[in-house]
Amino acid sequence: MSTTTARPKAADSHPTSKAARVLADRRLPVMVTAALFLVMYAAGLSRYQNYGFGEAQVFLNLFIDNSYLLVAAVGATFVILSGGIDLSVGSVIGFTTMFTAWLVERQGLPLVLVIPLALGVGALGGFLMGYVIHNFEIQPFIVTLAGLFLYRGLCLVISKESIAIGDASVSSMAQTQVSLGGAFLSIGAIVALVVLAAAFYVLHYTRFGRRVYAVGGNEQSALLMGLPQGGTKISVYTVSGFCSALAGLLFTLYIQSGDPLHATGMELDAIAAVVIGGTLLTGGSGFVIGTLFGVLVLGLIKSLIQFEGTLSSWWTKIATGVLLCAFILIQRAMTARRKT
Amino acid sequence: MAEPRPVLEMTGIVKEFPGVRALSGVDFRLFPGEIHALLGENGAGKSTLIKVLTGVHTLDGGSITLSGRPVRFAGPAQAQQAGISTVYQEVNLCPNLSVAENIFIGREPTRFGRIDWKRLRREAAGLVDRLGLDIDVTAPLSSYPLAVQQLVAIVRSVGTADGEGAGTKVLVLDEPTSSLDRGEVLELFALMRRLRDEGVAILFVSHFLDQIYEVCDRMTVLRNGTLVGEHMVRDLDQVGLVQLMIGKALGQLDELHEHQLHADVGEPLLEAEGVGRAGGIEPFDLEIKKGEVIGLAGLLGSGRTELARLLFGADQPDSGKVTVGGKEVAMSAPNDAIGAGVAFCSENRKTEGLIPDLTVRENIILALQAARGWTRPIPTAQRDELVAKYIAALDIRPANPEARVGQLSGGNQQKVLLARWLITRPQLLILDEPTRGIDIGAKAEIQKLVVSLSEEGMAVLYIAAELEEVLRLSHTIGVLRDRKLVARIANGPEITPTRILETIASGEHQ
Ligand SMILES: Nc1ncnc2c1ncn2[C@@H]1O[C@H](COP(=O)(O)OP(=O)(O)OP(=O)(O)O)[C@@H](O)[C@H]1O
Ligand SMILES: [Mg+2]
């Protein structure tokens, strides 16, 4: 036992074929989604080119019409990457529309006050849910489900009817167009893109972002590695709460009213976008850029169906469901391969 | 010579789990600039003492002082900040992150508040290199075998120990060498000695007594959660140490040393012809007879595990054919192998074996039940009898079939995994590092069991990092090198570990 021989090279202990390497690449799902988007877009171009599908504005409308979904999905990406789930997203959005409309219309508060207030309430709610999840070790599914009901209930406490917003500053903001050559983006779309860029930076270039991945990879290990895993979890739900509230503000701007039933079930759209964007529901693997493509794919399905004209809008749901199944199967195949 | 003041002192430590008193009034001290072994049987309380120290478990009694000041940590993060860096028993890293990130996460180098990825990778490569590992640090951790992961965990802790003035006073290593081969163990020891000379206090847990005598200065022995004694390593010989650990003289080990390999190896059971897999192992021929023990020897990454996985269908061979008992078996999935009577006890109990939330009984019965099919439950009485028999045979502690496996000590978990496969009475049992993390007494028990199983006609493919272990048990030794089966050697008195090592080094058998 005392003789030593040449040290083994562990690097070649797993020489993988090219195909296996591609399959194991964590960026693959994002690339698949991006490719799917391009294919769908090209199909739209060839089918509806005479109806103006090729116009730049049609493309930019994808961002405008889905800005709130993108923001909500970015928040959900944080939660899902950390291995959790947030079901309260849709209710927070609905609540924020009510809360904002009520403050602006009924209380006459100026927007500069209302915006930080709404964001603060959303973040605080997320923080509290994260706190309960971490400190009482309750399934995030249960806690955020409670959040879902709670926020919906609060909407009705504010008012049973919808509140239209006639405030001039809101409508001028909603109508602002940021010109981009021949086409334009709305303020909401720009905010969403900024949020996306910020999320990308946070997830890839800050210690907090990397902790989110670590906790999602293996929570117990993260704890033993000396990472503040509890704080990370709480922060993740805070981020999601904040993003949901921001999405609520964008939704208010987009629709210019508060309604207790706004955005019902939108948490599921957000989760679907995240999963289609290649993030693993088990946590620890995925990219926020994928979420952008997830949202764009969902948005594109909607506008394709609009262009088709004769199809019922329920087809959007059916197409989403089919895609979701397909992507979960892809994920399954990938994780199975990675294990061996 | 006046003794310096201990850097760490734990007095009267008590820790209770529901139904188990894991530690009762243990004292432990650690001096700067020494390597201190913590010894004891499986379940003696070593890992628990470490986890109590670093705040993973809360203390039920006693006190801890670090550098003369009383401390009580709320968690590993705090312990790390106070200068205690730890490698826990099981590899505890994030499989989804790259090797480099696993080394640095929590203290990534930043520039203007932004993670400096270039520097992170460069420094990680440097640290890995110093331990003599040659791996791509940007690849995800999960793409490397267990031994490499264990080394990465060590690199992480040592990185904290001497990197950027982290001020590590205490380095805790809980069974860091359990899946390392000799070369890596030597690298690790060199590193430990260097740190010791720099004044770091090192706590080292291992079941390899030779390693203790090779590298440690002082040792503390635990038995059943109580302190048995603290000794200088030079004052106590191995026989005395084993007596302290198990509380009685150890006769059985000698028994095994003199044990003769039984000669009545039967007719061929499994034949592999040109079986291979690109990137895994080159095509090999192997014949295993009934009642034969074949040991596989080779360095880390030489293809031992890969060979075993092919014979079990865990990886699909892309050439050759396998026949079991004269019939060709497809080996496209483990189920094919199980159907043909092959069982595989994997080296990685954490990710591929045990279900921590199920009880010992449920974990043991799992494979047998699967083999019978879920529609034919095993009668309760028969089941309980079988489980009780194997708990006794392997000395699983606590001997309670209803205990949750996740709460067992590392070594006892390994025994449960072993019991699961033994109970299925396969024709060929593949054991990949079955004695990893198992104490010296239980190790002898398991080896005796392998011998008696083979006497009853079971064929065994035995993989172990320790060559002595392989030589003691095997009729035939298969030597692997660079993912190729280079030699099959019939065991005999003239075969020594040195001869095998020569074969590994030269790639041919004279
Ligand atoms: N989380 C837990 N819950 C309940 N009991 C536990 C828990 N962790 C450990 N134990 C029990 O405490 C005792 C000591 O276990 P410990 O892991 O410290 O042993 P060890 O000395 O490290 O053994 P090994 O050499 O096998 O690693 C065992 O009886 C074990 O079953
Ligand atoms: Mg232990």
Automatic annotation (TrEMBL), chain A:
Q: Which Pfam families has this protein been placed in?
A: BPD_transp_2
Localization annotation = Cell membrane
Q: Can the keyword Ribonucleoprotein be found in this entry's annotation? A: no
Which membrane topology term applies here?
Multi-pass membrane protein
Q: Name one GO molecular function term.
A: transmembrane transporter activity
According to its UniProt record, where is this protein mainly located? membrane
Ribosomal protein is among the record's keywords: no
- Transmembrane intervals: 28-46, 58-81, 111-132, 138-159, 180-203, 234-256, 268-301, 313-330
Which terms are listed as keywords in the entry? Cell membrane, Membrane, Sugar transport, Transmembrane, Transmembrane helix, Transport
- Superkingdom is Bacteria
Kindly list the GO CC terms recorded for this protein: plasma membrane
PANTHER family on file: ABC TRANSPORTER PERMEASE PROTEIN YPHD-RELATED-RELATED, INNER MEMBRANE ABC TRANSPORTER PERMEASE PROTEIN YJFF
Q: What is this protein called?
A: Simple sugar transport system permease protein
Automatic annotation (TrEMBL), chain B:
Molecular function terms in GO for this entry? ATP binding; ATP hydrolysis activity
Keywords for the protein's UniProt record, in alphabetical order? ATP-binding, Nucleotide-binding, Repeat, Sugar transport, Transport
Coiled-coil intervals = none
Sequence ranges assigned to domain ABC transporter in this UniProt record: 8-249, 256-507
- Pfam families registered for this protein in UniProt: ABC_tran (PF00005)
Gene3D superfamilies (alphabetical): P-loop containing nucleotide triphosphate hydrolases
Q: Which domain of life is it from?
A: Bacteria
State what protein this is by name.
Simple sugar transport system ATP-binding protein
Biological source species: Streptomyces indicus
